[in-house]
Amino acid sequence: MRLITAASAACLFALTLAAPEEVYAQKGRPVAATGAFRCTAGVPEDTCPPVQDKVRDDGAAYAFLLASGEGSQLNTNGEYYLWFQTGGADRRLTVDLSDQIEAGGCEPNCYYQQAWGTLPEIPIYDGWLRTNVVDTAGNEVKGGLMALPCDSLPHDSRMLITFTNATQTSSTKTVSMSLRWYADAFPPSNMVQVTRHNRTTFTIEAPEGSARAVLNGSALVRGKLQNTRLEGVFDMPFKLHVTVPAAPAKDGC
Asked: How far is residue 235's CA from residue 9's CA, in Å, rounded to a whole number?
């Protein structure tokens, strides 16, 4: 693990998390989408980078599961949303914390270390990923991905991956973690880049060199978050392909 200790590593960040059902339960209906991460799901047009991506899938594309509400979708705000729940879809994604840029001051007793030990790769069976597209002034874009022009140009977006340490064999949850690419509120993280290539296809990417993510951890006691703290800054490049077959027609697409 590459480690550079920052003088500001002991700072704490406030963290507010919504339960997955609160994010999902919005007016209207979500739109089914498929999602596949670079290299692991075998997307044909991908060129795998020399350094392995730090957010990876389990080897196959994700799809929307109508019965449970889990899986890959655009929520009713038009944002990409990928949700897992233990005992549901039996799917996962992996975050790899092997490339630490700044320490959080909690080693060797950070929440993620307590829950998963010293292994850098964390399989997520219980958690969710969500984008939040912003304009050049940093304001939320109404309509999210669906509002983007088909210009094949990158647009800034915040992104969050939040997860607990529940596994497929245990329902015990003791910690809640959040990775944020969210430059305006969680420096020194970067934004991710969302590109709309045509009416139905998008990519979401944290490119190498601009892929810093802030990791926050909280104790989870009786379903409530306690003692939230900064647990480090990590280099987390990845690329995610999203297809929305039912995306409505749009001028220029």
From this structure: 15
Helix (H) and strand (E) counts in the chain: 2, 16
pTM metric for this prediction: 0.85
Q: Choose the most confident range, by mean pLDDT, from 21-25, 88-92, 166-170.
A: 88-92
Place of tokens 């934004």: 191
User: How does pLDDT run across 220-253, given as a tens digit for each residue?
Assistant: 888 788 999 999 999 999 999 999 999 988 777 8
**Quick check: is 5 in a domain?**
no
Query: In 3D, which of 107, 93, 104 has the Cα closest to residue 214?
Result: 104
For residues 233 and 104, what is the distance between their CA atoms, to the nearest angstrom?
Answer: 8
Q: How far apart are CA 40 and CA 9, in angstroms?
A: 33
Our count of domains for the chain comes to 1
User: Does residue 7 belong to any structural domain of this protein?
Assistant: no
More reliable by pLDDT, 90 or 24:
90
Q: For the segment 165-187, what is each residue's pLDDT rounded down to a tens digit? A: 876 566 667 899 999 999 999 99
CA Rg, the chain, in Å?
Answer: 17
For tokens 């304001």, the residue is: 139
Is 8 inside any structural domain? no
Print the domain residue range for 61: 20-243
In a domain, 112, yes or no: yes
Among 239, 245, 155, 145, which residue's Cα sits nearest to residue 200?
Answer: 245
Residue type, 95: V
> Which helix (DSSP H) or strand (DSSP E) does residue 218 occupy?
strand 212-221
**Burial degree of 114 (CB within 10 A; 0-12, 13-18, 19+):** middle
Q: Does an H or E element contain 205, and which?
A: strand 201-206
